[in-house]
Design goal:
mainly alpha
């Protein structure tokens, strides 16, 4: 019964997030609304951690299993992915390692504490770099999706992989120049 109550609390917060997503014209997914609501409820002690802890831990433990259907779904999209698999793999691997590295640096800075102003500035710079990396990753993802949509609409065979690589290189060069000019 305890687990049902915990799951009901988590489900209720998720449903509230879905409702907010439906009624608010903001570009955030419902899961983000739900997470923010849960954070507020936990911080204000309206919901206490023991009220959701065990079920939340279970859900986090089984989360990798939830990616299996998405992975299987990629099999059906293989004909569309095959011409652009190399750029997608490169983008995924590079962005994964960049995010892991920056996250590690930010965590190190936070664990050590920001006792001096210099450490605080370093942590701020790392956080800004992380934001830029995530922004680049989102830009590349959006552009790849747009290119795929354009290709599907035109129904012409194209060299999508070459175009994606060219556009990504051009965007990185432009962003680097913008950063250096600051």
């Amino acid at each position: 019964m305890k687990y049902m109550k915990q799951f009901a609390i988590i489900l209720a917060v998720s449903c509230i997030g879905e409702l907010l997503n439906h009624f608010l014209p903001l570009p955030f997914p419902a899961s983000i609304y739900g997470l923010v609501i849960m954070l507020i409820l936990l911080m204000t002690h309206i919901v206490k951690l023991p009220d959701v802890d065990e079920t939340a831990t279970f859900l986090v433990d089984v989360m990798p299993m939830m990616f299996i259907p998405a992975g299987v779904g990629l099999i059906t999209a293989w004909p569309d992915l095959q011409p652009i698999i190399i750029p997608i793999l490169v983008i995924t691997i590079v962005s994964t390692f960049l995010v892991m590295g920056v996250t590690g640096k930010v965590t190190d800075a936070l664990v050590k504490g920001t006792e001096t102003g210099e450490e605080k500035e370093l942590a701020d710079e790392i956080s800004e770099d992380l934001g830029r990396i995530e922004s680049l990753q989102e830009d590349v993802t959006r552009k790849a999706a747009r290119i795929l949509v354009e290709e599907e609409e035109s129904e012409k065979p194209s060299r999508l992989g070459e175009e994606l690589s060219r556009r990504a290189s051009k965007d990185q060069f432009e962003k680097k120049n913008k950063t250096e000019n600051r």
